[in-house]
Hints:
The protein is 27% helix and 27% strand. The protein is α/β, with parallel strands linked by helices and 222 residues long. Strands 5-4-3-6-7-8-9 form a 7-stranded mixed beta sheet. It has a two-stranded antiparallel sheet with strand order 1-2. α1 packs across α3.
Amino acid sequence: MKCVVELPLQLDSFQAQREAMVREQIAERGIRDVRVLEAMRRVVRHEFVPESFRQHSYEDRPLPIGEGQTISQPYIVATMLEHLAIRSGDRVLEIGTGSGYVTALLAQLAAEVFSVERHESLAALAESTLLRLEFRNVKIRVGDGREGWEEYAPYDAILVSAATAAMPPELFAQLREGGRMILPVGPASSQELQLIRKASGSRDIRILEGCRFVPLVEGEAE
């Protein structure tokens, strides 16, 4: 099993903004998981944002990253990570690599991260950014997120960063007994964030809060 490399706090021109983001947008709104807060202090979000939006990197909102996709609002990312309660030895599946920002956070929290992205251009850019920032415990592939990544199953945790009408059964099948999955469910007008635990092969579903994500695209990858 691979070890997670403990990255040093990044000293850069965005450091003060990053500290303010964690303090004001995340900790002051109730996120208490120390490992999540520390990961969000360490991972340089601006490196995952297109140059034209970089000055907005640490604002409390999603930002476009191309292909009709977005990098999610920091608070909702922190909420998902806290509820997943990822342990340092966990194997995690991410659906929707996007810019690679959440992938980087997962890589700080878990032992291994496997991420599936439908858009080849986003997957390539995310992989390049993650390698440049020296995240070595991540694998990315282009594919249909609804199918997961069976080769490396079962997973201790699954994070889905796009909304779906219902939980894809293939993803639940790849979840380890006792594992956790978090995903947004519903149409754009009324999505809810669901935390699903696998208990004796059945789904234990907890509704967390309202949310808004781009849809999980059906069909073949590009």
